[in-house]
Amino acid sequence: MWRFRNKEIKIQIGMSLIGTAVLVMASGAVWGKKAAYAAFFCCLAWSFLDLARTDGRYRKIRSLAGQIDEVLHGKEIPEFQNFREGDMEILRDEISKMTVRLKEQAELLKKEKTSLADALADISHQIRTPLTSLNILFERMKNPELSAFERRRLLRESGKMLDKIEWLVTTLLKMSKLEAGAVVLTEEDISMPEFLEDVLLPFEVSMDVHEKVCEISGAEGKSFSGDYAWTLEAVQNVVKNALEYTPDGGRLIICCADNPLFVEIKFTDSGTGIPEEDLPHLFERFYKGKNAGAGGFGIGLSLAQMIFTREHAVIQAQNAPEGGGQFRIRFYKTVL
C-alpha cells in the first residue's frame, strides 16, 4: 500500500489509465475492435513495466535514505550499494564521498580528544615530582629562623622548579598540537650559518660557565627548507641533549654537509657515548636513558622527531667512531 502513498506514482498510474483509454478508443475507431484489444494489452504491459522501473528506483532511494539515517544516528558508516542507473550512480558517489569525509572528520575529532586526554594525563603524571619539590621548599621557607642567604637559595630552587614545570607543560602541549594536526608548518629557505647562531644563542652562558666549546664546520653557503621557528625548537632540543652529555671542558662538534639529495647537520659530543640499549628508545616519549640526569623529563628528543617528521626530515642517533654520542639530521630537498 505504500506505493499509493507516493504522489508521483499515483500521478503516473492516473496518466497511464488516461493514455490507455484514449489509445484504445482511437484504435477501435480507426482500425476496429481487434486493434482496440491489442492497444489495450500493449498499453497495460507498458504501464506495468514503467511502474516496475519507477518502483525499483524508489526502492533504491529508500534504501539510500535508510543508510543516511543510520549515519545521522551515529551508527557505523555503511558501504553504499553500487546502483546501476546514471543519476543514481552520481548521487551514490556524492553521498559516498560525503560519508567518507564525515568519517575522516569523526576520526580526527576522536584523535584530538584522545590526544588531549593523553596530554593531560602525561602533564599530571610528570608534574607531580616538581610540585612535590615546590611544596617541600615552601614548607622550609616558612621556618622563621631561616637566614636571608638560605631563603634566597630556596627561592632560586623554587624558580628552577617553576621553569621546569612551565617547560614541561609547554612542550607537552606542543606535542599534542602536532599529533592532532593543529599546527601548520610553513616552508622557507633557511641560511645555515645564521640558523646555527640562533640555535646556540640560549646555551652560550652555560657553555662559558662549564668551559664547553662548540666547533662548527661546513655551514657557510648552505641552506635548507623548513619552518624556521619549529625547526629551531627541534634542533635546540638536540643540542641541549648533546651538551648535557658533554663533560666540562669538552667539545660539541657541528658538521654540515650538502649533496643533491639532502642537507645534513651532524652533532657529535665528547662524552662517553650512548649506551647500546638506549639507542632504539631515545626518541620515545618520557624515555630516560641509562646515563640521563635526574632533572630531565625525556620528551625533548621526542618533540624534535615529531617536528622533523612533519617537515619530511630524518633524525638518527648513533655513537661516533671516534667516541661520543652523535645525532644526524637530514633535510631532504625533494619529497617523493
Give a short synopsis of this structure.
By secondary structure, this protein is α+β, with helices and mostly antiparallel strands.
Textual characterization of the structure:
It is a single chain. The chain is of the alpha+beta class and 336 residues long. The chain folds into 3 domains: 2-78; 110-180, Helix Hairpins, CATH 1.10.287; 188-332, Histidine kinase-like ATPase, C-terminal domain (Heat Shock Protein 90, 2-Layer Sandwich). The chain has 9 helices and 7 strands. The protein has helices at residues 7-31, 33-72, 86-126, 128-141, 148-180, 192-200, 204-209, 228-244, 300-310, and strands at residues 188-191, 213-217, 223-226, 251-258, 262-269, 313-319, 325-332. The strands form 2 sheets. It has a 5-stranded mixed sheet with strand order 2-4-5-7-6, covered by helices on one side. A two-stranded antiparallel sheet has the order 1-3. Helix 6 (192-200) packs across helix 8. The longest helix is centred in the first third of the chain and has 41 residues, at 86-126. The protein is elongated, with a radius of gyration of 36 Å. The mean pLDDT is 81.
